[in-house]
Design a protein that fits this description.
By secondary structure, this protein is an all-alpha fold. The chain folds into 2 domains: 100 residues, Alpha-helical ferredoxin (Fumarate Reductase Iron-sulfur Protein, Chain B, domain 2, Orthogonal Bundle); 45 residues. 61% of the residues lie in helices and 0% in strands. The protein is built from 11 helices and no strands. Helix 10 packs across helix 11. The longest helix has 25 residues. The N and C termini lie far apart (65 Å).
Length: 157
């Protein structure tokens, strides 16, 4: 009897590949409690994003599916999960390992991580301008929405 196709695609050594790289060493400690997902700011705004599921996929050996997944790129690397994880899994560090593996193994163009860094830098600049604008007006009553603030900042640039 032939095995189901998905079983042939599993790589039982994948978790060891991730664990042997700097930053991936704690991944095998996960016992799937879900605290990482509960505290994740990305999961808060995107119901599809689930750090626990990504770890489970690593543990099951779903290498191609993980490395080709959009989800490894959605992590904001804020480390909230690392601070609250009772097993010290350090999910953000593991995401960096997975990203490096995805680039090395040709799942994404080598320029893609640089594009993400540019986006992150831009987001931080916009956040700083929006917060600075709000702080400057903190003694005034304001009904300006973040969207309106963003429009104002873009128009000034």
């Amino acid at each position: 009897m032939a095995l189901p196709k998905f079983l042939n695609e599993l790589n039982p050594g994948f978790k060891y590949e991730v664990a042997e790289k700097p930053g991936g060493g704690h991944i095998k400690s996960c016992f799937a409690c879900g605290v990482c997902t509960g505290g994740c700011p990305v999961a808060e705004i995107d119901d599809r994003y689930d750090p626990r599921k990504i770890i489970r996929m690593i543990m099951l050996g779903m290498k191609e599916r993980v490395l080709s997944s959009d989800f490894i790129w959605l992590c904001s690397l804020c480390n909230t999960c690392s601070f609250i994880c009772p097993q010290d899994v350090r999910f953000s560090e593991a995401m960096e390992v997975l990203r490096e593996m995805a680039v090395k193994e040709g799942f994404v163009d080598p320029s893609f991580p640089k594009t993400l860094k540019s986006i992150e830098s831009f987001i931080q600049t916009v956040r700083d301008k929006m917060v600075t604008s709000a702080v400057e007006k903190r003694k005034e009553e304001s009904k300006v929405t973040p969207k309106e603030m963003l429009k104002e900042i873009v128009e000034k640039s």
